[in-house]
Amino acid sequence: MPTPFNAALEDLRTTRVWKSIFRRGPANSNRTRSIAVFGNLFLHWLPVKVREKSLRVRAAYYLGSLSFLLFIMLVVTGVLLMFYYHPAVPNAYRDMKDLQFVVSNGVFLRNMHRLGAHLMVLLVFWHMFHVFYRGGYKPPHEFNWVIGVLLLLVTLFLSYTGYLLPWDQLAFWAVTVGTNIISAMPVIGRKVRFVALGGNIVGENALLRFYVLHVVILPLLAFLFIGVHFWRVQKDGGLTVRPTRDEDGTNKD
Ligand code: HEM
Predict the structure, then answer these.
(1) What are 179-213's pLDDT values in tens digits?
(2) Closest Cα to atom 26, ligand 1: which residue?
(3) Which of 32, 125, 203, 242 lies 20 to 30 Å from 193, alpha-carbon distance?
């Protein structure tokens, strides 16, 4: 029996305003449901049908979704940290000390960002191993695997560039060692190191470059690749599910 709410919704759907926004009537058949999905920017992301099995927790243990959740948490805490941080020498180190001793809940904020970053690297690797174990790199998912590899690189670069920002001894020497390793690359090694540091030493230029990479370029790339990654999961027919076999050995699905 239609409830008053459903009846009101049905009435709303026949109005001119509703039709001007959604350009369709009620989605009450397979055809109108498909039209609803194809005609809406947000729903367009989703498939018209999914296999029931790929919705089970065991299909992915939400490892990818949890990585995404952590990424959002890191963006939020990162933006809050930006209110207190100056990417300059010696301000950067002082700002970290201010966060520790002056700013209310500064330690909590900084640790959320730091621990979240460690956890994200762990979860992204775990997600990758789990996808690999289930054969998620095989057709038709190969392209999404490649996007995944790019996401892994972006995640690692985000961690690495963030490491320099506190401008303490650990940061300074970690980046000195890392960029010295880069310079050992044949032919282009020294040039790549020069471009990465904005000079030959880990100094003010390097701090600024790492900061811009960390807060603008890499997060934008991550958003872009995550968008394509999610869209492809849906358009490749959902998650890879291991086929169950009939007694005669043929695949059931
Ligand atoms: C920022 C990092 C990443 C995020 C946010 C992310 C997110 C996701 C999400 C939400 C899914 C749907 C299933 C789930 O919830 O686990 C998924 C699936 C998938 N991911 Fe990732 N992912 C990331 C990194 C990677 C990496 C590093 C790889 C591999 C190199 C990868 C390869 C794949 C593939 C192939 C699928 C489809 C799985 C299937 O077909 O069963 N992803 N990802």
Answers:
(1) 999 999 999 999 999 999 999 999 999 999 999 99
(2) 148
(3) 125
